[in-house]
Design goal:
The chain is of the alpha/beta class and 443 residues long. Helix content is 42%, strand content 17%.
Length: 443
């Protein structure tokens, strides 16, 4: 049996971002006996093919001057993981010893030997940059605009589910408190969610070093496309008022994102999940690198794959492997699972009488809702009766649960314009007005 894992490296790599890439690679290594059968590197994408045959257990990490290299080929998986860990430790040591002044200049693979050339960014002469010839600058500009160059330049896209993040930050800091006791500015503006939000954002940026970022915003619930499919979709949430202290901070959060120069995207009648799904699929389809999804929303588990992870509150990561280990199904089957079980939170009906265990059993045997419906005659008793009676409910439920990842409204979005260019002056201006203090290094 063959497995394949992979990881992208930033085109403007730093030691920190490279360490993050290798951490991502380690998380993908399956817990099984086997070896590395093939290694390829193209467009800053390192692809490792694994099989279950026993291999050679030797591994090697070398350091020659400012070039680090490691052997990846013909290793068993334990040695492979050990090699990457040791390689990362070397990078960490460099970062600590020299204050993180090194950038990754070149990445190469030759006969299973992966190497990084490091340069001392702190000693780059600004004068040298200024003295570059006009021809050099024009050539650099031309290459930057070349679509083929852009496709090969893999990065890391951070996608933020705005409503989910704001709510999570609010309730995490409001738990057990009365509104009058929540953090406020001297002008009386509630700020507990905003303080938690900016702290969280800075933490995520430091951990994952994204090269690009966007905030996804929900359309109004009453206008959602899914309500055309099923008028009762999320109707259980209608009429439930949010605390005033939360309502007041929602526009403040959007103001802060705008001041920071973080793009905010909303598609009429669609949810933030669909915007995130569409951007994720396009980013991956164009071979641009990894995606970090910042949200607690379980629906976004559908996007998990080798280079898409979801980060929950407390910076808990959900990967494809951890999802499968926990739920016993693949991320692609999650909408089928909800179609069978339904979901109270979103008021998705599902099939009455089909619970968690039955749904998992059916999906293990028939793989999808469509597979179950095609094999109804093989079912027995109440299970067969329920599936026959509620087949249409199940189909509707899947339409409600599945993420829409091909929104044409987002085709015009230039992914390069999502590049991380945080306006720190704008950020400080909003935070100072709200009397929110953050660390000096973050500011």
């Amino acid at each position: 049996m063959e497995h394949c894992i992979g990881v992208a490296f930033s085109p403007n790599g730093t030691v920190s971002s490279t360490i993050v890439s290798f951490e991502s690679l380690i998380r993908q290594i399956p817990n099984m006996a086997g070896r590395v059968s093939n290694v390829t590197f193209e467009g800053r994408w390192l692809r490792i093919e694994l099989d279950e045959q026993e291999g050679i257990s030797n591994h090697a990490v070398q350091q020659e001057g400012m070039c680090l290299s490691m052997t990846l080929k013909n290793l068993n998986l334990a040695a492979f993981k050990s090699t990457i860990s040791e390689f990362m430790n070397r990078l960490f040591s460099l970062q600590v010893k020299y204050g993180g002044i090194y950038d990754v200049q070149n990445l190469a693979l030759n006969e299973g030997m992966f190497s990084l050339d490091l340069i001392e960014s702190a000693f780059r002469s600004k004068q040298e940059q200024q003295n570059r010839s006009v021809d050099e600058k024009e050539e650099e500009s031309r290459q930057t605009k070349d679509p083929q160059k852009l496709m090969a330049a893999a990065g890391r896209l951070l996608l933020i589910d705005a409503s989910n993040l704001i709510n999570a930050c609010y309730y995490a800091t409001a738990y057990g408190k009365e509104e009058k006791d929540l953090m406020r500015s001297s002008a009386g503006e509630y700020t507990n969610a905003i303080k938690a939000l900016i702290d969280r954002f800075i933490s995520i940026v430091r951990i994952y070093a994204p090269t690009h970022c966007a905030v996804a915003i929900d359309s109004k619930r009453a206008e959602l496309y899914r309500r055309d499919i099923y008028p009762e979709y999320k109707a259980n949430r209608d009429g439930k008022e949010k605390p005033q202290s939360l309502e007041e901070q929602i526009p403040l959060a959007y103001e802060l994102f705008e001041a920071m120069n973080i793009p905010q995207l909303k598609v009429d009648r669609m949810e933030a999940d669909d915007t995130i799904a569409s951007l994720t699929k396009r980013w991956i389809r164009e071979n641009r690198g990894d995606v970090i999804v910042l949200s607690n929303d379980k629906d976004l588990h559908q996007l998990l794959d080798g280079n898409v992870i979801q980060v929950l509150s407390g910076n808990v990561e959900v990967t494809r492997d951890s999802f499968i280990a926990k739920h016993g199904i693949t991320p692609e089957q999650f909408a089928d699972y909800k179609a069978l079980c339904g979901e109270d939170g979103d008021n998705i009906p599902g099939v009455p009488g089909i619970g968690d265990k039955t749904a998992l059993k059916l999906l293990t045997e028939y793989h999808s809702l469509e597979g179950v419906l095609a094999n109804i005659e093989k079912l027995k008793g109440k299970q067969k009766e329920k599936m026959e009676q509620h087949a249409d409910d199940a189909k509707t439920s899947k339409l409600l649960a599945i993420l829409y990842s091909d929104l044409p409204q987002l085709d015009s979005v230039n992914l390069d314009e999502l590049a991380m260019k945080v306006n720190k002056d704008g950020m400080r201006r909003v935070l100072e007005r709200l009397e929110i203090n953050i660390s000096r290094s973050a500011a």
